[in-house]
């Protein structure tokens, strides 16, 4: 995108972690940001916090939306268009993790993981694709290195993230004819609240949320003739095992 100022971005699951840090990075580039969460008060609180830290005239708002519900996603996009009259960037960031052996993983845990991490990404692009056609926008998914590297107790999470990685690449081929750019970012260990973790000093070696936010900005600023479609990101120096 030649200029980011006055563009509008929708970030699913943007109340903390990668989503929140990315919202702040975009806002500081002059991009209006809509943060979604299943909890409306959390979304509004996150937007207020981002607004209090911004360095531009851009604005963040928070709205309730559930990525597992297509109707909810459609309503979120309609609200974005109602507030800002355009949608230029969609970042499918919402995700959860249930980790257990295949023997212990429950049907409910499997379904929630797939519905949130994979189907939720499909709903995010399906609900926004017409708006992105008009803006010739950018769709970015947050996958994981778990989307190419499997591990014990990761059957549900691996399945969802392998799916997101493949889905995003196929969507990229489908949508580039509309001048919509599509990329997936695949982080390794990130210092976030994911799966109940509380970031602390021991996370200093990990990727930080703002690092992913910076990467998103770099993608948006890249010359439109070039598309990094799949980006693996890992800590430079993880602890020795």
TrEMBL record:
Which is a GO BP term held by this UniProt record? monocarboxylic acid metabolic process
UniProt cross-references to InterPro entries, sorted A to Z:
NAD(P)-bd_dom_sf (IPR036291), Sc_DH/Rdtase_CS (IPR020904), SDR (IPR050259), SDR_fam (IPR002347)
Q: Which Pfam families match?
A: adh_short (PF00106)
Q: Describe the family membership recorded for this protein in Swiss-Prot or TrEMBL.
A: Belongs to the short-chain dehydrogenases/reductases (SDR) family.
**What protein am I looking at?**
NADP-dependent 3-hydroxy acid dehydrogenase YdfG
Native source species = Flaviramulus basaltis
